[in-house]
Amino acid sequence: MTQYLSVEFIAMLTGFLLMVIGVWGIISQKNLLKIVIGFSLFDTGLNIVIVSLSYVKNSTAPILDKAVEVSDAASKIADPVPQALVLTSIVIGLGVTALMLAYVMRMFREKKSLEINSYNELKW
Amino acid sequence: MVNPIHIVSIALGVAFALGFLGKRDKLSLGLVLSTLAGMVAISAGWFIHFLNSSVEPLQIFTGGFKPPFAINLQMGLAEATFTLLINVAGFLGAIYLTKELLKTGKNMMLIFLVFILGLNVMVMTRDLFNLFVFSEIQSIALAGLIILDPNRKSIPSGFKYVIATGLISSFLLLGTVFAYYFSGTLNIDFISQASLQYVKGGAVAVFMVILAVILELKPFPANGWALDVYESAHPGIGALVSGIAGTTSLFVLYKLIPVAPFISDILITLGLVSFVASNLLGLSQTNPNRLLGYSSIGQLGLLSATIGMQQLLGDKFIFIALTILISHFFAKAGLFWLSGIINRDDIKDWAMLRKKPILLVLFGVFIFSLIGFPPLPSFFGKWSLIMELSAGNQYMLVTSILIGSFIEGIYLFRWLGYAIKLDFSDLPEFKLNISKFLPTLTWGILLIATGVVASAEMEGLSGLSYWPLIFIAFIYLIDELPIYIKNTLSIAGLAFYSWLTLPELYYTDMLRFIFMGIFLIGGILTLIAGYAYKGKRRGFYPVALIMYAGLAYIIQASTTLEFFFGWELMTAGSYFLIIRGKKSINHALSYMLFSIGGAYAILAGFGITFAETQSMLIASLSQLSNMVPLVFILLAIGFMTKTASLGLHIWLPGAHAEAESDVSPMVSAILLKAGVFGLLLLMIAMGNNPQIATIAYYLGWLGALTALVGNMAAAFQEDAKRLLAYSSIAQLGYILFALAMMSHLGWLTAMYYSINHFLYKAILFLTIGAVVLKVGTHSMYKMGGLIKNMPLAFIAVLIGIIALSGVPPLSGFGGKWLFYNAVIDKHWYFQGIIVFFSGIVAFLYLYKLIYSIFLGQLKDNLRHVTDISLWFAIPIYILIIGIMIISAKPEWLLQPLGKMISQWYPNGALAWNGGLATSTYGYWNGNGVMITIGIMFTTILIWLIVLSRKAQKVKQFNIVYAAEAPQRPETTHQSYNMYAGYNKALGWIVAPKITEFWNMMSDWILSLAHFTRLIYNGNGQRYLIYILGYFVIIYFLVF
Q1: Which chain B residue has its CA at the smallest distance from A119's CA?
Q2: Is B917 helix (H, G, I), strand (E, B) or coil?
Q3: By CB atoms within 10 Å of each CB, which of A40, B154, B271, B588 scores lowest?
Q4: Is B170 an interface residue toward A (CB < 8 Å)?
């Protein structure tokens, strides 16, 4: 039972929950801005999942200094790789969100509508 | 050698530097182009390096650490090849977009550079997370490029693209971090060593990674977003998406397969479903870019299936995947570029290409490359694919690949037909921009060049000489010269080839000698008629020669590959000949579809043979012991599409009737014999097998019914050329019937008929064609009474129909005599009666032919028509001499034929005593018959002349019907609806049931296509649901 109350488990659960909410938003909301927000939620959830993976119980930040000897670093520090990855992922997420918003602006300028259903011209 | 990392560094450096250049767009473009050229140079350097020596791939470690602590890139032969493809396409793609890039300014150029850069790294990286980063960079850049040309369509489709790829790459990211969690590394090689598929959770991680890559390949049905991009983005961008982005994703998939090896099996299914479904949906498309999108997705499906088949294909995998990939890469980009040049929304408007004929040629090259015709690379790829899959007994896969390819053929050739035939006078003029033309041309040339390279890699193709093809290319280059030069050169080419091959064949192989003679000598004779045409006759000679080259290759082939090479070449050439006719667009399409279908049946048959015998020799057909009936049926169906047997004949009447006057004999008297030759080869190889006897029995019935229906339909035609076309169907039915007897006399009859049919059908088609050129109509009831105006034509037709009908004294009589002997010998009385009856029906149409054209009342408008052109008369009369010789001296032909057939059927041969042939049932002396009949006729003629000395010569209108003079005597022509009574009684036999059947099939397929494509309803969210659903369904299929 205790493992379900651990920080990393709760974090991961939150992350996945956010992702599900995000996906639900993306596929159920008709408003373009809400879709973008859904995507943003999804992305945030994903990042939380990544961070939760690197957590090692009772360990410290992955910085080699007086507190942590190189020899036993592996057991004492959190895994630095996912933390590095998540930074990149956040940046990319930002880029994609910005791109989506830019698209929404262009779409609104063309048709004065934020309804996704009014952009079904191309089909079949 | 420049370190490959500089592909990344210079691209990035220049991309940043562009920011400092202010508004100097031309300078920026120059910089971008030279950067891309530099990237080409680097990867080309490595490509050559690895090509010349099999050195280990170069590993590049960033930051000085080795993996798993740092990202590493790899440059080996594979990476060098793919980066080279990407960079060359990027460079030419940028040149193509010069105008657009200058218009939108340097931001777009920057994005363009980053896009190419991202693809390069995706190919080189060995790090999973790095792969994710650069695929994101690449797709963000692409999202920018989609609105290179911002409009109401491209903006929403860009949005759909961004959310779809955003979702897909999230799968990639999630899978990546979990793969890291379970394996402790991001390096692809280390992850595959960790065998995550056996770790609970790890398997899901790598599944997510691989499925994200598969989704990037736009599998059906999770691909609505991609289709919209193809349709709405500038075609210059479409070319990049389809050509290089797709190619890169395929390479990534190939690279990641070791990480998740369990995906291979399902990948094959997914790929082939996508291949067949996309091509099916392509049938309903009219927008060229969307059509290309469907075709693109189909090809990507085929290629990802091929990647899944890696284990099945063994050593051949690389060759197969590369040849098919390269065909797609060049052809699809080339087609998108063409689309950008003419810039129309409807494929029917592609007739515009004819305003710049070179574009039409390129279009043809690209289309033929997608279908896989020789000598283009995909021909060899598909051949090897089918052979290897058959060798592994994967017949389901073979079938679905062939079905998918066939459907692809339907819409591609329909499109090509539109471009070649539809009226283009209403379409606007357009300027051929050099920056747009050059990349397209380069792609076309590279496509052919890779085909030649690929052919050098093939086993079982060494027997064919490329000189005929080089000669044809030369004839194409001088296409602007007048007819008489090109015609003379073509005739000289065929004559030279005859001189080269015929004397040798005469002593070594009588069968091939005869068919080679029909093809080449027939070719020369029919080409002579071409002198009658004026002007340049653009494009005629190259395609006619392609057909003859294909026919000659078929004869010379010793392996199945060589045979198939020739077969496809002949099909391509004859297609272009047929479509030259004025109203031939649909007939040419149906000819092509039957031909492709037949060719695939042949391919499958050869594949099964290869699977068992492991040999590509044609002779290996005889060593087959399993599945003999299936192979026999497949090959027979393939060959019967050319002989136009009942059920497969519906393409023929239109194709032959609407063809040009000298083309009709080429495609009738000559081309159909290719099918006969194929059937003969097949029966020689397999005839000894007892299972074949039953099939042959049914083939005999099919031949008999073909003869009956063909002749009856001929009798009811009003169009002279259609009449002859149906007559060809019937004659080929006789030949099929005789072949199916599989006895000495049966085959002697078949060979004799083949030669005879060549002679008299060439005479009749040439003559009628020449008459049509003079009178300007095919309809017989609009002719009549031409005997005095056209005595040469009249005599030729008279001799032709006497020979055809089989009355003494001409050669047809010999055919009939042989035929009855064979039937009695074989005891096929019922079938024999049907054939006998259809021979009587033949009199009806032959009489109609001569009566309604040459006898009866002359029409007013034809009063001043002169005799047929001398250039037609020359070959016609040469052929008549041929008929006279074999009629008078049949032993000259039949004795060597008999000797030849005795190799296979020694029993039942004719006994010869001088000119006297004796069989078990009777005897015949061709010379004697001729002399007897000659004396009889001469006597009667002299008698008549003597009697009619006092006869009065009457003018045309000096006639009386039932004691009443007609008001307008020229209307008393009886040939319109001449056999109305017979039609009423027996017309039901020739009701177009078979045509209706094929029409129903095509309607059914079309409505299926239309119905299925409704899943793409245009809503971006729906497309996301498809992606999620696809993910979930495949997940449950795998785990």
Answers
A1: B156
A2: strand
A3: A40
A4: yes
Contact call for A117 and B1019, based on CB within 8 A: yes
B chain contacts of residue A112, beta-carbon cutoff 8 Å: none
Q: Which of B107, B133, B161, B163 to mutate to test the interface with A (most CBs of A within 10 A)?
A: B163
Ranked by mean pLDDT, which of A80-89, B460-469, B566-575, B773-782 comes out on top? B566-575
Contact A27 B153 (CB under 8 A): no
Confidence of residue B280 (pLDDT cuts 50, 70, 90): very high
Is residue A124 included in any domain, yes or no? Answer: no
DSSP letter for B428, please. P
Confidence of residue B362 (pLDDT cuts 50, 70, 90): very high
Residues 258-317 of B with CB under 8 A from A: 284
* ipTM of the prediction: 0.94
Region B1-20: mean pLDDT is: 89
Using a CB–CB cutoff of 8 Å, tell me whether B1016 touches chain A: yes
β-bridge partners, B631: none
Please, which residues have CB within 8 angstroms of residue B975's CB and are 6 or more apart in sequence?
B718, B780, B781, B784, B848, B851, B852, B856
Q: For B811-822, what is each residue's pLDDT tens digit? A: 999 999 999 999
User: In chain A, how many domains are there?
Assistant: 1
Please indicate if any CB of chain B lies within 8 Å of the CB of A27.
yes
Residue B833 has pLDDT above 70, yes or no: yes
State yes or no: pLDDT of B785 exceeds 90.
no
Question: What pLDDT does B649 receive?
Answer: 92
pLDDT number for residue B991: 82
Residue B924 three-state SS:
strand
CB of B166 closer than 8 Å to CB of A40: no
Q: What percentage of residues in chain B have a pLDDT greater than 90?
A: 76
Average pLDDT, chain B: 92
Residue A56 resides in a domain: yes
Q: How many CB atoms lie within 10 A of CB B239?
A: 30
Domain ranges of chain B: 1-126, 459-939
Q: What is the pLDDT of residue B974?
A: 64
Give the ranges where B283-316 is alpha helix by DSSP (H): 288-308, 310-313
> Does the CB of B797 have a partner CB in chain A at under 8 Å?
no
Whether A102 is in a domain gets the answer yes
Instruction: For an interface test with A, give the residue of B173, B180, B1023 to mutate (most A CBs within 10 A).
Output: B173
In 3-state terms, what secondary structure has residue A115?
strand
Is residue B657 within 8 A of residue B721, CB to CB? The reply is: yes
Contacts of A73 (CB under 8 A, 6+ apart): A62, A64
Are the beta carbons of A121 and B1025 separated by less than 8 Å? Answer: no
Averaged pLDDT, B419-446: 92
Structure tokens at B331: 């052809």
CA-closest candidate to residue B839, choices B810, B876, B801, B809 = B801
Residue B301 has pLDDT above 70, yes or no: yes
pLDDT in tens, B647-677: 899 999 999 999 999 999 999 999 999 999 9
Q: Which of B133, B162, B178 sits opposite A99 (nearest CB)?
A: B162
pLDDT greater than 90 at residue A49: yes
Check CB contact under 8 Å for A96 and B166: yes
> Touching check for B1014 and chain A: CB below 8 Å?
yes
Question: Is A26 inside any structural domain?
Answer: yes
Give the residue-averaged pLDDT of A97-120.
Answer: 90
What's A66's domain CATH number? Answer: 1.10.287.3510
Read off the tokens for A122: 């191309």
Find the residue in A nearest to B1019 (Cα). Answer: A120
Residue with tokens 């080429």: B666
Range(s) of the domain holding residue A60? 2-119
All residues at 6 or more sequence positions from B1005 whose CB lies less than 8 Å from its CB, including other chains: B280, B283, B407
> A with B: how many residue pairs have Cβ under 8 Å apart?
105
Q: Give the pLDDT of residue B550.
A: 96
